[in-house]
Design goal:
The chain has 341 residues and is of the alpha/beta class. It contains 14 helices and 14 strands. The longest helix has 18 residues. The chain binds adenosine-5'-triphosphate and magnesium ion. Magnesium ion (MG) binds next to helix 3.
């Protein structure tokens, strides 16, 4: 288990001119609707508590207006909390003065938006170098670093082109390269892939996962799309009306939805396809020679033939062929039964 990178504690955000005044009413249970109709203030976040593990991908989901962007913007304090704290590496960033906040944003966080937010009159190289200009690198180091990231996102040869000469997917790669070029610990991605065509989107998801294997950033990733959430998220937080209604891994979200709202989100998901062996793995134990062996990254669907021929379950190995644990046959049968609901 990694350490906590970002810790959000009792975080409230009320939008309006007199937001502090309504904190106690909200704490006493005043609803978002009532706050709006009676006092013309908007409840953005309602007592959020969340720990984001270092080097993990934390997905945030929820319907439009549920508070996703508001939450992610608290991490680099583009939005000031009405109450509560956000700590990064143990440091309370809600207490940083202006200078320290700027330093923090520059050095620790990178942001990727839905609309790529590139500078139209600068070429790709300059767009990627954008965050480096304030880092006091000399020109050749800055170019070298930008070119490295341009290559990493597969855009070598396009460095002298302008954004409008690139497709949406390519522009989003530039956005990603720009965010990564400053080498931030934390990547904040707000619907970063939502404007892309499905195929390109899948491609970007794969690329992000591939990069993350080595980069090991802490990524907060907002999406509307459950498949994307399940594919990318080590953990998934679900917001409803500014409240965090569930935070869990894919298995918990799919098999134990906390309420009807979450259940509605996941009702059409093909659990067998989406759930991976790694999410239902019982770690450790002994290899059972009578059972077949599968890979930790296999989907349950792919392992169904192995389940059929198994005695009591499956041995599970990682990418390096090391035994990492097992999955019991009963557990899979249980999931199969739940999937029929
Ligand atoms: N600057 C603001 N002033 C007033 N209300 C705001 C402001 N920003 C956000 N809100 C309100 O806060 C709530 C949460 O908004 P937020 O933008 O975080 O939602 P979201 O989950 O990101 O939605 P979407 O999926 O549409 O991007 C909404 O009710 C919204 O109207
Ligand atoms: Mg949003």
């Amino acid at each position: 288990m990694n350490k906590t990178k970002i810790k959000i504690t009792n975080l409230y955000k009320i939008f309006g001119n007199n937001s502090k005044k309504y904190i106690s009413s909200v704490r006493d249970g005043m609803s978002k609707d009532e706050l709006l109709s009676k006092y013309n203030h908007v409840l953005g976040l309602d007592n959020i508590n969340l720990n984001v593990e270092d080097q993990s991908i934390q997905v945030v989901m929820g319907l439009s207006g549920s508070g996703k962007s508001t939450l992610i913007r608290h991490i680099n304090r583009l939005i000031e909390p009405t109450e509560g704290t956000v700590t990064v590496d143990g440091e309370d960033i809600t207490k940083l003065n202006k200078m320290d906040l700027l330093e923090f944003r520059r050095n620790k966080t990178g942001m990727v938006f839905q609309r790529f937010a590139l500078f139209p009159h600068q070429n790709i190289l300059d767009n990627v170098q954008f965050g480096l200009s304030i880092k006091n690198l000399d020109k050749s180091d800055s170019i070298e670093r930008a070119m490295y990231w341009i290559e990493k996102v597969g855009l070598t040869g396009f460095e002298n082109k302008f954004p409008n000469q690139l497709s949406g997917g390519m522009q989003q790669r530039v956005g990603l390269a720009r965010a990564l070029a400053t080498d931030p610990d934390i990547l904040l991605m707000d619907e970063a892939f939502s404007a892309l065509d499905p195929l390109i989107r899948t491609d970007m998801q794969d690329q992000l996962l591939e990069l993350q294997k080595n980069l090991k950033k802490t990524i907060m990733f907002i999406t509307h799309d459950l498949d994307e959430a399940l594919k990318l998220g080590d953990r998934i937080s679900i917001l409803n009306g500014g409240k965090l209604v569930q935070d869990g891994n894919a298995e918990e979200i799919l098999l134990k939805p906390a309420d009807q709202y979450v259940a509605n989100f996941v009702k059409d998901v093909n659990r067998i396809k989406v759930l991976k062996i790694k999410t239902i793995l019982d770690q450790g134990g002994e290899r059972a020679n009578s059972n077949p062996t599968v890979n930790v990254n296999d989907s349950i669907e792919n392992c169904l033939p192995a389940i059929l021929e198994s005695q009591s379950g499956l041995n599970v190995i990682d990418e390096k062929n090391n035994f990492v644990g097992s999955v019991s046959k009963n557990k899979i049968i249980d999931i199969l039964q739940k999937s029929k609901d």
